[in-house]
Design brief:
By secondary structure, the protein is of the alpha/beta class. It contains 13 helices and 25 strands. The strands form 4 sheets. Strands 1, 6, 7, 13, 14, 15, 16, 17 and 20 form a 9-stranded mixed sheet that branches. Strands 2, 3, 9, 10, 11, 12, 18 and 19 form an 8-stranded mixed sheet that branches. It has a 5-stranded mixed sheet with strand order 22-23-21-24-25.
């Protein structure tokens, strides 16, 4: 017998009345974050760790129902390491690097997303979004206990927004009635249907894809491999596609393509879903339905991610298909990008112009994600006979012809964005070095004699010197720049040299607080470093 069981939410921040609700005039805050999902909580944690006061307003009091996002990429895990909560996520999550692609019942292709050694984190973990959010809030609580200026207000629903010349006024409804508060900056992390976006009369530009997909999260004990498994035209879902992922707690994610013209009510009936599941996993395997949903998707983006003192992040700013796991992972890269910039401006280390670079860099990242996501959708759901012919030809070739394998598109999986054209980059002055660590790129990890490189970099401006002697600390552009010096003995596997050294077997890197490369050189040059720091803080000294 198949049972239906729905997960209950985690109540992480129950409503509590605060003194500001009875104040004679609105209290002013440096940063107010609207929305308590992964992006909102990630941003609050990043700001709080840097000593930047922030308030999170969420219309609920914890994590919602259902697994929702489950695939968290290596770059997201590295961001969470920087924020202090990566370990519990990886400990709980299901680690995977390998994906397999089937046509009918036959495997035609497999791939390893992280074939090289020298990385602390795997290519992906599968972890239900409620756990991901819980670990962020757990770390926020730990930081609060150490004095981090983070406040979370549950069941505080923003109902109005008024922009002034130098701040924003928010009207908030609560169980005890409405009140107002002011913010120097507001960040809307309030999801795909963003009320803040609606209040400001803003919209998306993009494309709706005419297809429906069924998610069925089931609990079962089955001896299936811990891999991403994707089918084109399987016998249990003829003419369509299907996907299988393992999650923690013996929960598995099944995803079925349904087509456009369907009866949604009929397809969501438990008995119909159970028929599909049994046909996929086998009639002899018992399971429980944990969470089900039918979704459509669109690939779209706002024109601008900054509107005066209001910023948009995550699904509030951009949306993609779920194929390739670019939604939540892209949102966490928004956090990575905006957090240090807001902190630098609020703390007086940089001017307001630095905040414009958030839109420049993350709009570029969103458009990259949308491009890849749209190509996946077109491969899975061909829009015309020519697209169908191309897809079928690729699948005919892929089993025996290696050149065709990169053309198979069951979801180009999330990778960190490289900000090649960012105004915060300085010219590349390290001849012969790998392009993977060029200015604008996220730092690539490497195994050291003790630990891993990214754990040494922290979340402030740093200078990485490899086989170059420089002062232990530098004071440039008004900042104290920490220095990490590494020698040949620190590189037991050669990964550091391969990823960071230039033609002269040395390298000096200026690393931003989000662990992206701002500049690199062959040798230590204080004047060049000072100039590059100013550029990375939003200056114009290029």
């Amino acid at each position: 017998m198949v049972a239906v069981r729905y997960q209950t939410a985690f109540q992480l921040y129950p409503y509590e009345k605060v003194a500001a609700q009875d104040a004679d005039r609105p209290h002013r805050h440096p940063v107010v974050i609207v929305g308590g999902g992964p992006v909102g909580m990630g941003l609050a944690l990043d700001l709080g760790r840097k000593g930047t006061p922030c308030v999170v307003l969420d219309d609920h009091d914890g994590v919602g129902q259902g697994s929702r996002a489950i695939c968290f990429a290596k770059r997201t895990l590295e961001i969470c390491d920087r924020l202090g909560c990566g370990d519990p996520m990886v400990d709980k999550g299901v680690v995977w690097n390998v994906g397999r692609v089937y046509r009918d019942e036959k495997e035609v292709y497999n791939f390893n997303l992280l074939p090289e050694d020298g990385h602390k984190r795997p290519a992906f973990i599968n972890l239900q979004q409620p756990y991901f959010e819980q670990y962020l809030v757990d770390e926020i609580r730990r930081q609060q206990a150490m004095g981090a200026p983070i406040e979370i207000r549950g069941r505080n629903c923003v109902t109005a927004l008024d922009q002034m010349s130098d701040h924003v006024v928010l009207t908030v409804d609560t169980p005890d009635g409405p009140y107002q508060l002011e913010a120097d900056y507001v960040v809307a992390c309030d999801g795909a249907n963003s009320p803040i976006r609606g209040m400001m009369g803003l919209d998306f530009d993009g494309r709706v894809f005419e297809d429906n997909f069924l998610i069925a999260d089931i609990k079962m004990r089955a001896d299936f491999p811990t891999e991403r498994r994707f089918w084109f035209n399987p016998p249990f879902n003829r003419g369509e596609t299907a996907l299988l992922h393992k999650q923690p707690d013996d929960v598995w994610r099944l995803d079925f393509q349904l087509g456009w013209d369907i009866d949604r009510e009929a397809e969501l009936k438990p008995e119909r879903i159970s028929e599909r599941v049994s046909a996929m996993i086998g009639e002899d395997i018992d399971f429980e339905l944990v969470w089900t949903s039918i979704y459509t998707f669109r690939c779209c983006t706002m024109d601008e991610y900054r509107h005066g003192n209001v910023f948009f992040a995550g699904d509030a700013a951009h949306q993609v298909s779920p194929f390739g796991a670019r939604g939540a992972n892209g949102g966490m890269q928004d956090v990575d990008n905006l957090g240090w910039k807001l902190a630098a401006v609020v703390n007086g280390e940089a001017g307001d112009a630095l905040l414009d670079s958030y839109h420049d860099e993350r709009k570029y990242g969103a458009e990259e994600n949308i491009k890849n996501s749209s190509r996946t959708a077109d491969f899975l759901t061909p829009r015309n006979p020519a697209h169908t012919l191309f897809r079928d030809a690729v699948l005919d070739l892929v089993e025996h012809q290696a050149f065709a394998r990169p053309l198979v598109n069951s979801g180009r999986l999330s990778l960190p964005c490289t900000y090649d054209h960012s105004k915060l980059n300085s010219p590349d002055e390290l001849p012969g070095a790998s392009t993977r660590t060029r200015p604008g790129s996220a730092c690539s990890d490497a195994t050291l004699a003790q630990g891993h490189l990214l754990d040494r970099l922290g979340d402030v401006f740093m200078l990485l010197a490899i086989k170059v002697n420089i002062p232990e600390t530098l004071h440039v552009a008004g900042l104290d720049i920490d220095v990490v010096e590494l020698a040949e003995d620190d590189d037991p596997t050669g990964a550091l040299a391969d990823r960071y050294l230039g033609a002269n077997n040395a390298g000096v890197y200026l690393i931003r607080p989000d662990q992206h490369v701002a500049a690199r050189w062959e040798r230590f040059d204080r004047e060049a470093i000072e100039k590059a720091v100013r550029v990375a803080l939003g200056g114009t000294e290029q």
